[in-house]
Amino acid sequence: MRYAMAVDTAKCVGCSDCVVACQTENDVPHGFARDWVVEVNFGTYPELKTEIRSERCNHCDNAPCVRCCPTGASKIVEGGIVLVEHDKCIGCGACITSCPYDARFSHPDGYADKCTFCEHRVKHGDDPACVAVCPTKCLYFGDIDDPGSDVSGVIRTREYKTLIPEAGTQPQIYFLT
Amino acid sequence: MKEELIISGRMNPNIDPVLHIWHWQIPLYLFLGGLAAGILFFAGLYTILGKGDKYRGAVVYAPFVAPLALVLGLIALFLDLKHQLYFWRLYTTIKLESPMSWGAWTLIAITPLSFLWAALNIREIFPQWKWKFTFLDTLEEFFRRHIIPLAWALVVLSVILGIYTGILFSAFNARPLWNTSILGPLFLTSGLSTGAATIIILARSHKERMMFSRIDLGLIIVELFFIVHMFMGFLASTQVQIDAAALFLGGPYTAPFWVLVVGMGLVLPAILEAMELAKFRVPAIIPASLVIFGGIMLRFIIANAGQVSRWLY
Questions:
Q1: According to the model, what pLDDT value does residue A142 have?
Q2: How confident is the model at residue B5 (pLDDT cuts 50, 70, 90)?
Q3: What are the extents of the domains in chain A?
């Protein structure tokens, strides 16, 4: 089993509901965000193209944050989810520095924090909060090893890209273009 | 045209707009660790070579600085941690792919050794020194008999310590400026150079001062070569590394790096040391302090600029 997410950049309107849903669901402290929305504008008026991406931790297969963690607090659990074990984390900041996506931050309580793919929800079969709440249904989540899952379906039929694959991280968030 | 903006209002402290998770503690520690590594390396080396009597500054006096530097460095490291009460977790794990884990284990080995080395030489400072308990005399006797293996341990551990301060950075491919394997040798050389400079300051004879001026001059030349090599490597690499080099070649770090590190920290002391070796009268403390200053600046500028350099997507 390998959890993955697909983001339809053509359907996303950038409402940031995913961000708020995550902050609410995961009690993210005020002023912090585990997911965020990026808007990219290409071209010159009137030939413009906009791409809106809801971004978060890429739950990389080759995760530099897991590699550099000196205590093993950052780890990959079932389904390929990259998690931080709070009472093993010393707050050294190595994982924060190692992430090319800047997906991690230092939680005010001291440990490194980031998107968990809502591990507490997905293990009961629910979607992550951001996916469940998305009003345009542009986020797809599921087991990429299962050909019948939503995410496998869109990746099979649509063109997609991942973010900085050349960093060698093997990211697992797919952006449908 | 391509314009990219975060529209959700992500402003994670110390992450946005540019990463700034490591403040003064890490570069200060990297300097102190490198300094201690340099001092202990020469102390061990000249003990093994049997020249302890000739180079008393290197073998006896400078090593008193090492435990001090290591303790201050460890305090800086501890202050850097955000989840401080869990620091002991470093010592419940050995993670070979994490340079920080290597460093933590090296420190726990070399710090007691640096204290031990200072303790064995304590009578050089306090001739009347007596241990309070007799078993300490026995221990001292034991280590005196095994001074050569102890010196070997210092040499090996100090090289690991010195090189790891650079590898700590170079292991992060997310920060293109740091992601060069030359950083390990560069920081090791800089550490040895600052160690040699400390020995120059604490040397007891003109001959020893001259010897370490010569060593330091060689190390500075190697360092300059590494720096040139580093930028050549960047400029021949991918766009992100070209951008990283641009921070120093016209970008915001140009003046601090080339003036404070290369000019004042390397070229100027090299000229002064060369003049000294050519029998000009140069107070040895001037080039030595410049080298130490350059070592501090190198760590601070590389630590800072590395966090600014990034992948763009």
A1: 96
A2: confident
A3: 3-176
CB contact under 8 A, A39 and B10: no
Q: How far apart are alpha carbons B13 and A15 in whole angstroms?
A: 23
Q: Give me the helix-helix angle, B134-145 and B147-170, nearest 10°.
A: 80
CB within 8 Å: B2 and A37: no
Q: What is the pLDDT of residues A20-37, one digit of tens each?
A: 999 999 999 999 999 999
Chain B residues closer than 8 Å to A73 by CB = 89
Measured in degrees and rounded to the nearest 5, phi and psi for residue A4 equal -150, 165
B8 pLDDT more than 90: no
Contacts of B17 in chain A (CB under 8 A): none
Q: Shortest Cα distance from A160 to chain B (angstroms)?
A: 15
* Tokens coding A103: 């997906």
Tokens of A145: 């090893």
Does the domain at A3-176 match CATH 3.30.70.20? Answer given as yes
Q: Give chain B's domains with CATH numbers.
A: 25-308 (1.20.1630.10)
List the single residue in A with minimal CA-CA distance to B20.
A97
**Quick check: B7 and A37 CB within 8 A?**
yes
CA of A45 to nearest chain B CA: how many angstroms apart? 10
Q: What is the pLDDT of residues A64-80, one digit of tens each?
A: 999 999 999 999 999 99
Asked whether residue B4 carries a pLDDT value surpassing 90, the answer given is: no
How far apart, in whole angstroms, are the C-alpha atoms of residue B182 and residue A42? Answer: 37
Q: What is the pLDDT of residues B160-215, one digit of tens each?
A: 999 999 999 999 999 999 999 999 999 999 999 999 999 999 998 999 999 999 99
